[in-house]
Amino acid sequence: MRVTRLPPGPDDRDRKSFPVSSPQPAPTAHTFQVDLRGLVDLLSHHLYSSPKVYLRELLQNAVDAISARHRLDPQAPGAITVQAGDRSLSVTDTGVGLTEADVHTFLATIGRSSKRDAEGRLDAAGLAGARSDFIGQFGIGLLACFVVADEITVLTRSAATPDAPVIEWRGSSDGRYTITTRPGSAKPEPGTTVTLVPRADAAQWTRVDQVIELARNYGGLLRHEVTVVDDRGERTRINETPAPWARAYGSPLARRQALVEHCKATFDFTPLDTIDLQLPLVGLTGVAYVLPEAVPPSRRAGHRVHLKGMLVSDQADELLPEWAFFVRCVVDAEGLRPTASREGLYADETLAAVRDALGVRIRDWLTGLSASDPALLHRFISVHHLAVKALARYDDELLRMLLPWLPFETTDGNVTLDEFARTHRTVLVAQTVEEFRQVAPIAAAAGLGVVNGGYTYDRDLVHRLPELRPGVLVTDLDPTTVTAHLDSVDPAAELAAAGFLNVAREVVGRFDCDVALRSFHPASAPALLLDNREARHERTRAELADSSDGLWADILGSLRAEAPRAQLVLNHLNPLVRRAASIGHRELVIAAVEALYGQALLLTRRPLRASESALLNRSFIALLDHAMLGHEAAGHEGAGHDGPGHQAGRES
Ligand SMILES: Nc1ncnc2c1ncn2[C@@H]1O[C@H](COP(=O)(O)OP(=O)(O)OP(=O)(O)O)[C@@H](O)[C@H]1O
Q1: Which CATH superfamily is domain 487-634 in?
Q2: Where is the segment annotated Disordered (predicted)?
């Protein structure tokens, strides 16, 4: 390998020097030395993800060489043959070939590429030609061969200079190379053959079955014919051109089936649908396959991106917007830039524009389905409704189009918001799943319409309903709304229970909770605790403010907000509540209220605070104590078969 000595730059002559007392000795120029082994180690361990990239680099050089030859002669043959034997591997192309001078300049100079001009521009003239013809650009690709072999042999004949001799170049991983002129018969036609003898530890990468698999993976979409030949002369065709989505088929159904097969072979799933992708500005074509099963949005997308047919990445999640996690794509593009390892895409403005444009395409497919194939849309939504909801939150048009299809959990069952709003002009939103579970049956019995807003995205989406369906009112479920819709009890019963209710208010008032007596179904439920998140936060804040002092208490105090108090609704239809309302024993009433409150509290399934656990404990002990006292008293009277509740009911 050669390291180019840098000529003195014009700046060296013009550079101004600072005044110094004695003349300085003239600086001596030196040249960087390159330790090729160190460089190969860097590439193999830090740039490339696996030794297998050697084949990609060889295929890519062959493709570029054919492209360069086609610039000279569009009729020239374009074929690549990989010979995979037990002891060596070679890649032969019918490309432009190299003269001896080319070999010194391009092949043997690290970082030099015929695909850029001397200033490093990609749109160089001459052999390089237009950038858009080539995949390579960095001038390091051939080094990937040293990851699997210690020596590379290149036998080449130039098409650009037909009378130039056949050249054999042997490069070694220690940095030395030799050049030999060979007779014309050694390579009768223009083109290049690169041969490697793998090191013992890398032999697995050049075995014929591995080579076929790698060639299919990297080169399955190459536009020139690629064939792998084994020791016995058996030929395996690697690619069929054009790409599956660009071929002509007898019918739309035949095309559809072919793409389904392609998806199965590539991603191992049967797609729900396929979306054609085309962005002529960057020469991109391809297809997005819709996943038949839901995936967590955080899962990496794994799109396959080819540049000019050559696979660059099979994990390119930056190709589509994050929300499009329900598709997997295969695309082939002209105008995207690979990174130097050629295992990812360079994150430039073009990639950002491509991502946006592909996002629009996928969104259009989605919105178009509602008109073209409602049954498919239905299936899609039942699998991917979370993805669609995530998307619809930020996309008004999509929300408008898909709202009629999105399912929500409501007091009418699993229905769409549109359907729900037809029967409930006021839509109440429970903010947590627990709140919904607890309140929904009672609210439904009272004729209220409640949507479970406890799931990700649902609350936000329901609140946007009035924008799309004017006249519908959406409001968060709060305790007073529910209580207002439950049947009130008749004034005489309310009066009779007044003493009991006063004690109850005293007991639960300490927990910032009001008490109401109502009749509601199911009658088996003695009490309902209506509470919401804001009210709870407000209470926690107030508690903290009370227990802190100084500045902290002032800060917490200034955050005070008007939040609805919790409400304990006692059910007058419930026999236990009626009985509790009729007893006059103050301590037993207190224990009963604490127990009713505690039970309603447990049904909310939220974590209990220390004071609430203490209340539950207290009421349990008090009731137990009371039951045993009652039992003893009954024993004395010789009426030991009455249950404790019965006893308690009789005390007055
Ligand atoms: N099969 C080939 N036929 C003709 N020229 C070749 C062939 N393989 C390599 N070369 C020449 O050797 C140069 C260096 O190749 P190398 O693979 O190291 O880098 P590159 O292809 O230019 O860029 P990259 O590092 O991006 O792959 C190429 O620019 C090309 O001029």
Answers
A1: Heat shock protein 90, C-terminal domain (1.20.120.790)
A2: 1-29
